[in-house]
Amino acid sequence: MLLDRDGTLVEDVPYNGDPDKVRPLPGAREALDRLRAAGLRLAVVTNQSGLARGCFTAGQLDRVHARVEELLGPFDSWHVCPHDDDAGCDCRKPAPGLVHAAAARLGTTPQRCVLVGDIGRDMTAALAAGAHGVLVPTPVTRPEEVAAAPCVRPTLPAAVDEILRRQDAVAPGAPRAAGTVLVVRSDSAGDVLVTGPGIRAVAAHARRVVLLCGPRGRAAAELLPGIDEIVEWPLEWIDPDPGPVDPDRTRRLVRRLAAVGADEAVIFTSFHQSPLPLALLLRLAGVSRIAAISDDYPGSLLDVRHRVPAGVPEPERALSLAAAAGHALPGDDQPRLRLRRDAVPAPPPRLDRPGYVVLHPGSTASARACPPELAARIVRALAGAGHRVVVTGGPGERELTARVAAAGGVDLGGRTGLAELAGIIAGAAALVVGNTGPAHLAAALDVPVVSLFAPTVPYGQWGPYRVPTVRLGDAGAACRDTRAASCPVPGHPCLAGIDPGAVLDALRLLGVRADAPAGPAGAPRPDGDPAGASGPDGGPGGARRAAAGAADRMAVPAGGGGGR
């Protein structure tokens, strides 16, 4: 548990070097004691540019921190950036250096950390390290920072309530041994991928796991560990373009489900889907124990009726259902997205070596796709800064990827299945992508993501999970929370206003260095690879040189008082 200091734990007194001015925020001590009682380790991560500016000494800062601990109790570790914005350091938030340092000191990884702060820099630092962020706004917090935050709570005690609730929801209980378990996620590839941790939790306790999925998720299902058999069957109440309900076909589905011989079923759904139609068919197929998330009254259709508040990340939503059904993820398996190693091929030889940047401009939902003009400008900017760029897309996106790659990238549009795409992403230094399936492939492969995230769905629920990420785009756009598949606002303003320079800044923040041979900016080499002159931040020590500038161009801007 990582906490910002000023505005989060104590009142924000600009450039404070006086212990007598330390005033805890209401409820802070009680909230921290609850975290300590739950066994969480606590660290403070704080920007203190007053040291660089000569506003106070290191000794005065130590006395201020001693007073904080006197009032709020002990912390396991303190991490301070003493630099000003123009220092170009790796530790000043929004750079993720303090998060990495704190995680290492606490003996864990950023992916197992939550950072609570009050401004956009805190959230950017958390996401760029792969940690989770919770924003507790104050009067200095900008509206755009609130809109872009992955999770918002009104006070520190409320943030602690949420963190402990989510921890308890996936905690192991009494394990339930099972024979054959039918798990269900009938949706797109990305939906199946984010259900992976929940499926692994079931597999840890079952003799055999059979997955029921639709044709759109079949390729993703074949990449997941823990599945012994796949049953492919589209469901009319889930598919976005369903055919009419056919009684004969429904009877065939019941017979197929009965043939699985499942002792129990766990129905994974998205937050807007109902498990009850399938639960009825499973009862007809003779399945005696069924678990699902359902806000609607299930009658006798469910044995385990689980409820999850809105906004929980989809992987945790699935994990909490598995735990409620008696199948918690075992302690030796981290709650991350994962793929079967034997299912991911090596990148194609034409890509020469790892370290390129993949741009995936398309999406099955056009509202979440990167506008083609912007995608081409991003490729041109990346190639000009010395990055090798690979453009990927599905079979129906060849025209799009050819147009985008012409600006200086390698066009692989329509040339890969999902497994081959995973292999390409596995060799990448980063992926630039919208809110679509390849973002979850990158998370499963631990590849950093520059997320061009259209806010039609909540970022905290659908953003790349536990992987270093920088979010770009207008989080407060008019399309926010509409769940629209096609852009409801002319001109796609939530993404169209992204500056390609912000993508370069995001890569620097993520520590991604340009590695293409020097050459004319954006000019393709004869073999199709882009070439570009190395930028000033491409050398050693320059990976995050533009961290401060990045914060001002991203969806989570810098902000806060003078002590930040």
Task: Please render the helix and strand layout as text.
Layout: E1 2-3, H1 28-37, E2 43-47, H2 50-53, H3 58-72, E3 77-81, H4 97-105, E4 114-117, H5 120-129, E5 132-135, H6 143-148, H7 156-169, E6 178-184, H8 189-194, H9 196-203, E7 206-213, H10 218-221, E8 229-232, H11 247-260, E9 264-267, H12 276-284, E10 290-293, E11 304-306, H13 314-324, E12 356-360, H14 372-384, E13 389-391, H15 398-405, E14 410-411, H16 418-426, E15 428-434, H17 437-444, E16 449-452, H18 459-462, E17 469-472, H19 493-496, H20 500-509, H21 547-553
Parallel strand pairs: 1-2, 1-4, 2-3, 4-5, 6-7, 6-9, 7-8, 9-10, 10-11, 12-13, 12-15, 13-14, 15-16, 16-17
Can you offer a commentary on this structure?
The protein is an alpha/beta fold and 564 residues long. The protein folds into 3 domains: 2-169, Rossmann fold; 175-325, 3-Layer(aba) Sandwich (Rossmann fold), CATH 3.40.50.2000; 344-510, 3-Layer(aba) Sandwich (Rossmann fold). It has 21 helices and 17 strands. The protein has helices spanning 28-37, 50-53, 58-72, 97-105, 120-129, 143-148, 156-169, 189-194, 196-203, 218-221, 247-260, 276-284, 314-324, 372-384, 398-405, 418-426, 437-444, 459-462, 493-496, 500-509, 547-553; strands at residues 2-3, 43-47, 77-81, 114-117, 132-135, 178-184, 206-213, 229-232, 264-267, 290-293, 304-306, 356-360, 389-391, 410-411, 428-434, 449-452, 469-472. The strands form 3 sheets. A 6-stranded parallel β-sheet has the order 8-7-6-9-10-11, with helices on both faces. α1 (28-37) runs parallel beside α7 (156-169), α9 runs parallel beside α13 and α14 (372-384) crosses α20 (500-509). The longest helix is centred in the N-terminal third of the chain and has 15 residues, at 58-72. The chain is globular.
